[in-house]
């Protein structure tokens, strides 16, 4: 009988419930993952963020209407990819730090500040976490900004960014279609087409497309379901 | 990574009143990546006899080729069409010959007896253990989801058009909860004098 050591980084539910392992309960020893497609882009006046809505445990789709666009402050959101538990935990901690920061400073934090808080957690605990996060938002000093924090905790400010398992299928598309200073409408089209293409090819991405536009006027959320998803060539 | 879920597939067959239906998804993928959406997994073995082959794609193609050869030899020697039950035994034998290094396919068979027109469905595991049922059979990466859907939706003596609706809904809602199957579906309704093949419009995710 294996003793369960809660401190090891390789903890999986199967160790705690030995009789579940390998008896048809395949979902018990694979982590819940937002194998996913996430994206953020600057536009003239703010940022657009977008994501698919699929969460998988192995090949089973545990949630087909997930919300991967998580609010951190009124003007700053993060897009989560990787382990669902890890990214939710990190986002909760950063949200807590920011509530505190806002009370101390009396004003909304800078996007750069929030991005650095995410980076510090993702870097310091890099051996225990599987988290790929995109931080995007608006502040009055620098307008719309996008910060990418991939798996091991580096931080990079970029005009636009994609992430998650589905992003590999759309590098060519986003590199060819991005233009600086697009309008809000053009950016929404850009993000929804890119996520739709990734969903089409990536098994770990799917469901509906969730979008949000963040600007000085706050956050506006959109959902694209079923036939509203952009369509491309299909031969049947 | 399980070998049987490397490519991903969802196939089921159902019995109706004097008819059978067999349906499959159309995805060919390599783990999470979808490579094509027009990969056939259901094959005609006789005018009223079909086999569905989910599992490792290379073995789907090899088993099909070897089975077709054996079937052709049978028809040349016997000078008649094979009965579905005999065909099931042929498939079972082919798979058990490889008991200790198996083909990674778990076939589903659906057909009508050539003389009496009686419906027949069966499935088997990768080493050829057959299972004949009177309602439905399922096989693939989302088999648990398919069992749930079939158990809820199937009822006995469905007419061909109702059987089409039932099998379509059961298959689609099952593979919509599986990350490695879907991307299109094909449904065959097999009656005594005609076979209708229909493509379903499905979510492409």
Automatic annotation (TrEMBL), chain A:
GO biological processes: proteolysis involved in protein catabolic process
Chief location of this protein within or outside the cell: nucleus
Name of the molecule in the record: proteasome endopeptidase complex
EC number: 3.4.25.1
PANTHER family linked: ATP-DEPENDENT PROTEASE SUBUNIT HSLV, METALLOPROTEASE TLDD
Organism: Plakobranchus ocellatus
Catalytic residues of the enzyme: 36
A Gene Ontology molecular function term of the record: threonine-type endopeptidase activity
Keyword Ion transport included in the entry's annotation: no
Matching Gene3D superfamilies: Glutamine Phosphoribosylpyrophosphate, subunit 1, domain 1
Cell location: Nucleus
InterPro entries linked to this entry: Ntn_hydrolases_N, Pept_T1A_subB, Proteasome_sua/b, Proteasome_suB-type
One Pfam family, short name: Proteasome
GO cellular component: cytoplasm; nucleus; proteasome core complex, beta-subunit complex
CDD domains, per database record: proteasome_beta_type_6
Catalytic activity: Cleavage of peptide bonds with very broad specificity
Keywords associated with the record: Cytoplasm, Hydrolase, Nucleus, Protease, Proteasome, Threonine protease, Zymogen
TrEMBL record, chain B:
This protein's record includes keyword Transmembrane helix: no
GO cellular component, one term: cytoplasm
InterPro entries: Ntn_hydrolases_N, Proteasome_beta_3, Proteasome_bsu_CS, Proteasome_sua/b, Proteasome_suB-type
Protein name: Proteasome subunit beta
Family that this chain belongs to: Belongs to the peptidase T1B family.
UniProt cross-references to Gene3D superfamilies, sorted A to Z: Glutamine Phosphoribosylpyrophosphate, subunit 1, domain 1
Subunit-structure text: Component of the proteasome complex.
Predominant location: cytoplasm
Highest taxon of source: Eukaryota
Location of this chain's protein in the cell: Cytoplasm; Nucleus
Function description: Component of the proteasome, a multicatalytic proteinase complex which is characterized by its ability to cleave peptides with Arg, Phe, Tyr, Leu, and Glu adjacent to the leaving group at neutral or slightly basic pH. The proteasome has an ATP-dependent proteolytic activity.
BP GO annotations: proteasome-mediated ubiquitin-dependent protein catabolic process
Classification via CDD domains: proteasome_beta_type_3
Species assigned in the record: Plakobranchus ocellatus
Swiss-Prot/TrEMBL keywords: Cytoplasm, Nucleus, Proteasome
